[in-house]
Each structure stands twice: as structure tokens, then as C-alpha cells.
Amino acid sequence: MQMTSNLDAAFSALADPTRRAILARLAQGEATVMQLAQPFEMTQPAISQHLKVLEQAGLIARRVDGTKRPRRLVEAGIEAMDQWLAMVRTALTKNYDRLDQVLAAMEPEKGKETR
After folding, report:
1. How high is the pLDDT of residue 18?
2. Most buried in the list 2, 47, 89, 96, measured by CB within 10 Å?
């Protein structure tokens, strides 16, 4: 159940384009709130709210560096989503393979006319 609630929070956090952009930026390396806020036309408190959602979802973490609080990606949070997506991708591939087999069996034999 814990895994499901973490995934729910993670995918919910990713529903917002600003948070996806923040994660994309953090994929390049750690950044402070001010660095993360720079490309957006929003206040630092608004960015901080987005960061809070991402932290609660287990996708980012902050560390203390003097007066700075740089954020970074959390591998475990990203990996959990990746594992879930891999499971779905595997199931879809199996479904498509079965569909291909059914369609191949339905193809009329070459040389026979269908009416």
C-alpha cells in the first residue's frame, strides 16, 4: 500500500508542467530555490510550494549548505516510477504481441480470393 500511495503522490506531482520542468532542471544537477525560480514568471514562495509537493512525493530532497538549501533528485522516487512504467510497458508489449498473432492468423492465405 505504501508503494501505491508514493506512486500516487509522484504521478500527481508530475501532473503540473512547472514541477516537470523543475525535475528536468534538477536532472542536470542540484539547484537552489532561486536558481529553480529563475526561468519562471512566479514568486519564490510559489516555487517553494512546488518544491514542497515534489519533496512530499519523494522525488526531490534538500540538503543544508550553510544558508543555502539546494534541491536534488531522489533516485528511489524516480526509480519507483520507472519500475511501475516498465511493468506497464511489458504488459502492453505482451498484449500487442498477442494482437499481432491474432491478426496474422486472420490474414487470408496468399493466392486465395476472399469474397
Report:
1. 96
2. 47
- Tell me the pLDDT tens digit for each residue of 45-65: 999 999 999 999 999 999 988
| Contact status, residue 39 vs residue 28, Cβ threshold 8 Å | no
12 in any annotated domain: yes
d(CA 75, CA 61): 10
DSSP classification of residue 42? S
**94-112 burial code (b ≥16 CB/10 A, e <16):** eeeeeeeeeeeeeeeeeee
Angstrom distance (rounded) from CA 28 to CA 94: 34
How many domains does the chain fold into?
A: 1
CATH, residue 89: 1.10.10.10
Measure the CA–CA gap between 61 and 87, rounded to whole angstroms.
26
Q: What is the pLDDT of residues 70-93, one digit of tens each?
A: 999 999 999 999 999 999 999 998
Please say if the pLDDT value at position 1 is more than 50. no
Amino acid found at 110: K
